[in-house]
Amino acid sequence: MCDYHCRFLGPGSAYHCQGIKGLRDAIASGIASRDGFPANADDIFLTGGASLGVHMIMQLLIRNEKDGILCPVPQYPLYSASIPLHGGALVPYYLDESRGWALEISDLKKQLEDACSKCIDVRALVVINPGNPTGQVLSEDNQYDIVKFCKTEGLILLADEVYQDNIFVDNIKFHSFKKITRFMGHGEDDLPLVSFQSASKGSYGECGKRGGYMKITGFSAPVREQIYKIASVNLCPNISGQILASLVMNPPKPGDESYASYKAEKDGILQSLARRAKALEDAFNSLEGFTCNKAEGAMYLFPKIHLPLKAIEAAKAAKKAPDVFYVLRLLESTGIVVVPGSGFGQVPGTWHIRCSILPPEDKIPTLICHLKAFHEAFMAEYRDQIVDMV
User: Fold this and answer.
1) Cβ neighbours of residue 284 under 8 Å, at least 6 residues apart?
2) How is the chain split into domains, by residue range?
3) Which of 137, 168, 229, 296 stands the most exposed, by the fewest C-beta atoms within 10 Å?
4) From CA 312, how far away is CA 383, in angstroms rounded?
5) Nearest of 180, 194, 195 to residue 146 by alpha carbon
6) Which residues touch 2 (CB under 8 Å, ≥6 apart)?
7) In this structure, are strands 89-94 and 67-73 parallel, antiparallel, or unpaired?
8) Which helix or strand (DSSP H or E) is residue 305 part of?
9) Spatial contact of 127 and 92, defined as CB atoms under 8 Å apart
10) Which of 292, 289, 317 is CA-nearest to residue 375?
11) What b-and-e string marks burial along 287-308, b requiring 16 or more CB atoms within 10 Å of the CB?
């Protein structure tokens, strides 16, 4: 269906459904440079943003309501929405907030066993690294354990790595799951792995361009053929997004004429994001009833709020979840928009908010002042007995 090229190969033309071969070559080169292992352009499917790649894979994995996908909680709602959309069952596993949102293999095993007891056929594990909305970066040891778990249980690993360039802690480094599997001695065919990357994160943040890719390894020829068919149905991704995705994975290098200006701009953006994250983290931890883990990566904070009983009762009277009640009051009082944690999933009885670190840096002090003033007034209004059920 998609094995054709238009006569005029301009940015408005249609191309191969996997994306332009030269751009996939550039991305493969960037992946090889990042990981230290070869990458094959034929394994890369350029997409109009990582989300479309996720939908393609869900469409292929899910046959009926008894097919399950293990997903982190909290997690970006793309997964909790796309799994039921395609007719499957979301199987949640809980990140450990007390350990910096660590992924516990013991909980994965528990949730897998529980799903199996309900006759749910768990087919894949979703890992978001760095985490959205939690901002943690997985350790190498944790990644090794995850790969072993998937290998032992026969699960496909779906690695959402769209925040890989957003690391804010000096002693922490992003490692792709492709790199981890190769370090462990697994060949390209040993573990079914789908890696997602996007042009809308990092220091570039071109959300409107909708560029990204998925890289598949470890799938048999018949399965790869089905992935190719799905890509063919979608036709080719937008050309500007393809070009941007290739530039994300193949930026200027030392010795290139533009490298100095590129590095200065990138470093400036990421350093500013790190300062914003630290300022907001400190602000939340200074507020009564808030606890906030360190932001290691991504673009968000996910602080926990211990609400007074009177506030919980007021939320119930208003027929709203307590975190929704809080964020609506914050919005009405200050104009500050945050997202209630219930939109991402959370341990029952706990309440959180997701706060972006994207407001301009010079606006952060004012935002913090308004947040503190609101929170102090809110707590004074509802102060009674602070409730933390977990």
Assistant:
1) 290, 291, 292, 301, 303, 355
2) 21-249, 259-382
3) 229
4) 11
5) 180
6) 16, 17, 18, 231, 232, 235, 236
7) parallel
8) strand 304-305
9) no
10) 289
11) bebbebbbbbbbbbbbbbbebb
Per-residue pLDDT of the chain (390 residues; tens, 9 = 90+): 444 343 335 555 556 788 899 999 999 999 999 999 999 999 999 998 889 899 999 999 999 999 999 999 999 889 999 999 999 999 999 999 999 999 999 999 999 999 999 999 999 999 999 999 999 999 999 999 999 999 999 999 999 999 999 998 888 999 999 999 998 877 666 899 999 999 888 887 777 778 899 999 999 999 999 988 888 887 677 888 899 999 999 999 999 999 999 999 999 999 999 999 999 999 999 999 999 999 899 999 999 999 999 999 999 999 999 999 999 999 999 999 999 999 999 999 999 999 999 999 999 999 999 999 999 999 999 986 555 555
Indicate the SS3 state at residue 238: coil
Q: Which residue has the tokens 């249980």?
A: 153
Contact 292, 284 (CB under 8 A): yes
- Residue (of 373, 34, 23) closest to 202 by Cα position: 34
Here the tokens at position 101 are 């949102």
50-53: long-range contacts (C-beta < 8 A, 24 or more apart)? 50/160, 50/162, 50/196, 50/197, 50/198, 50/212, 50/213, 50/214, 51/78, 51/212, 52/212, 52/234, 52/237, 53/194, 53/196, 53/212, 53/213, 53/214
* pTM: predicted TM-score of the whole model, two decimal places: 0.91
Class of the domain covering 21-249: alpha beta
Overall size of the chain counted in residues = 390
The answer as to CATH 3.90.1150.10 being correct for domain 259-382 is yes
Rg (CA), the chain: 22
